[in-house]
Automatic annotation (TrEMBL), chain A:
Alphabetized SUPFAM superfamilies for the sequence: Class II aaRS ABD-related
Keyword terms of this UniProt record: Ribosome biogenesis, rRNA processing
Protein name: Ribosome production factor 1
GO molecular function: rRNA primary transcript binding
Highest taxon, organism lineage: Eukaryota
TrEMBL record, chain B:
Annotated source species: Strigops habroptila
Protein name as catalogued: Protein MAK16 homolog
UniProt-listed InterPro entries: Mak16, Ribosomal_eL28/Mak16
Biased composition annotated in UniProt, kind: Basic residues: 254-272
Native organism taxonomy: Eukaryota, Metazoa, Chordata, Craniata, Vertebrata
Gene name linked to the record: MAK16
Composition bias, Acidic residues: 195-212, 220-231, 238-248
Length: 324, 292
């Protein structure tokens, strides 16, 4: 039967089933065995679809004009953000449990202004020029941060020393083939450790239309779009890098914007031209991060307790599911 | 012994030797029993019937020896001796095993042994340090991630988002008194006034009326009838003065919040700056007293 249907269609004949007198035929184009013929039929089908779509559009537009004021509002186009699969760990702003958790987690002392952030930035072994410059620029962006080079020292041995010297956070920038490609952010007095993959790193000189160097003023922090519990904790991690009281005189702002699980970091200087317009000028390095794992204690790759690991097979199955 | 020369003549110089590797400057020998690694008359294990090497297996070094007596028994050809772990004692063992052997082989054996112990020490040291773990990249996944990042960047519209956030913060007065945009402050003050006037007693309303009486002179001259048409149904209070005040407030509020207004706004908007100035002159002292 299929062969008959296919044969009939191959001759560009009438419809295979007499019940629906349709043109084009309703069998699937992919059933034709001959490639050239199949290709030809597919192109024809595609053209048909396009024509129908155009006609439908025109009709809709005409209806809209005819109705005038009473026309129904325009349909909202579907975006990935609209179609996002609802994550049950999305934080509700009024959730008490979340508020309680956040009041008692490792960042509570920072948010209660009991500790002042002091950051140590370091790299993997033998950093190359780009990574070194990136570290310097990063340390100019984050106030109260110091860059130290690690000459073969194990992280596990550095950490107790850092804690002894009152550092609150440790940033390790991993390098591969002369470009930085990973970031480990560890909150020190046994705080969580987040491991990110870093991409699109742009140093200051590679940014077009950039301003002058960032000054010593404490910048403001903007955290956008961290909706789930996981996103919230990562957002708090980022917020705890910067001192609590921004100096508005400096007019600098550091932004961590989460979009589809990618965290974009930008550093700008802003100026209010009027009460409804603001101009921003990008200073500072820029990079994007993608969270790979979140560990409960400080950096310990073997025995650490992982709160979240990105498992590609399980988590990347749907295009509309995001975790941050 | 003479067969050695024949072997060397054949393999080394004329015909093919499968262990030989030729490069531009040098010939190497791939034979695992070779002492130096080069393809020489004195280093070729095939062309010397009395030969010795050092080889290491699993961190232990062995001395392998081959003598002409066993040349007919390939299975028993190479005799192996385990060397001592101690470097000096092992050297003495080499010496006593290779006593009466040609100087070249003895010397090269000791050199090879030294080299091997050095690299074994290095291996042991390195395994104590952190090893760099190589993680293979998967090309398809890398490409996919890159593409998704680009799309996410486009969807993020970072500049707009940042500007919006900054304006929000300005509105919520996080910047305090640094930026004086009077309209903004006046907006807020007016909104406060609104809230107070709706909830409190008539005394307040009378005060408002007093102010509005002053205002009315200017405002009515400037306002066209358009402003009377608009927002009429939205207003709840009865007095004209309050109507005007609230109209302006509504206009401002609606202007700042929604953009899709009827085209009647056009001329009103043009007149707006003029009106604003009047308001500031009239009511700034009033707002100050209200705040106090």
């Amino acid at each position: 039967m299929a062969g008959d249907g296919g044969g009939a269609a191959a001759e560009d004949g009438g419809p295979p089933t007499p019940a629906r007198v349709l043109f084009p035929p309703t069998f699937s184009v992919s059933e034709i065995k001959n490639k050239q013929r199949r290709h030809f039929m597919f192109l024809r089908w595609k053209q048909q679809q396009r024509k129908e779509k155009l006609a439908a559009k025109k009709k809709r537009r005409k209806e809209r004009e005819a109705l005038g004021d009473k026309a129904p509002p325009k349909a909202i186009p579907k975006t990935i953000e609209n179609q996002r699969v609802y994550d049950e760990t999305t934080v509700d702003p009024n959730d008490e449990e979340v508020a309680f958790d956040e009041a008692t987690d490792e960042f509570a002392p920072y948010f209660n202004r009991q500790t002042v952030p002091k950051i140590l930035i370091t790299t993997s072994d033998r950093p190359r020029g780009r990574t070194v410059r990136f570290c310097e620029q990063l340390s100019s962006v984050i106030p109260n941060s110091h860059v130290y080079y690690r000459r073969g020292l194990a992280l596990k041995r550095i950490i107790p020393q850092c804690i002894a010297r009152d550092f609150t956070d440790l940033i390790v920038i991993n390098e591969d083939r002369k470009i930085p490609n990973g970031l480990v952010l560890s909150h020190l007095p046994d705080g969580p450790t987040a491991h990110f993959r870093m991409s699109s790193v742009r140093l200051r000189k590679e940014i077009k239309r950039k301003g002058k160097e960032p000054t010593e003023h404490v910048p403001e922090v903007i955290l956008n779009n961290f909706t789930t519990r996981l996103g919230h904790s990562i957002g708090r991690m980022f917020a705890s890098l910067f001192p609590h009281d921004p100096q508005f005189i400096g007019r600098q702002v550091a932004t961590f914007h989460n979009q589809r699980d990618y965290i974009f970091f930008r550093f700008h200087r802003y100026i209010f031209k009027s009460e409804k317009k603001v101009g921003i000028q990008e200073l500072g390095p820029r990079f994007t991060l993608k969270l790979r794992s979140l560990q409960k204690g400080t950096f310990d790759s073997k025995f650490g307790e992982y709160e979240w690991i990105h498992k590609r097979r399980e988590m990347d199955t749907s295009r509309r599911k995001f975790h941050l | 012994m003479h067969s050695d020369d024949v072997v060397w003549d054949t393999l080394g110089n004329r015909q093919f030797c499968s262990y030989k590797i030729t490069t531009k400057t040098q010939n190497f020998c791939r034979n695992e029993y070779n002492l130096t690694g080069l393809c020489n008359r004195s280093s070729c294990p095939l062309a010397n019937s009395q030969y010795a090497t050092i080889r290491e297996e699993k961190g232990r070094c062995y001395l392998y020896m081959k003598t002409i007596e066993r040349a007919a028994f390939p299975r028993r050809l190479w005799e192996r001796v385990l060397l001592n772990k101690n470097y000096e004692k092992a050297l003495e063992e080499i010496d006593e095993n290779l006593i009466y052997w040609p100087r070249f082989i003895r010397h090269k054996c000791k050199q090879r042994f030294t080299k091997i112990t050095q690299y074994l020490i290095r291996i042991r040291k390195l395994t104590l340090k952190r090893q760099r773990k190589l993680v293979p990249l998967r090309r398809k996944i890398e490409r996919r991630e890159k593409r998704r990042e680009e799309k996410a960047l486009v969807a993020a519209q970072l500049d707009n988002a940042i500007e919006k956030e900054l304006l929000e913060r300005l509105k919520q007065d996080t910047y305090g008194d640094i930026y004086n945009f009077p309209i903004h402050a006046f907006d807020k003050a007016l909104q406060q006034q609104d809230a107070e006037s709706e909830s409190e007693s008539d005394a307040e309303k009378e005060e408002d009326d007093d102010e509005d009486v002053d205002k009315r002179e200017f405002v009515e001259a400037d306002d066209s009838d358009l402003s009377d048409f608009e927002d009429m149904d939205k207003l709840e209070t009865s007095s004209e003065e309050e109507q005007e005040v609230e109209e302006e407030v509504e206009k401002k509020a609606s202007r700042s919040k929604s953009k899709g207004k009827t085209p009647l706004k056009g001329p009103a908007r043009r007149k707006r700056p003029y009106i604003e100035i009047e308001y500031e002159k009239e009511t700034e002292p009033a707002t100050k007293t209200k705040a106090a």
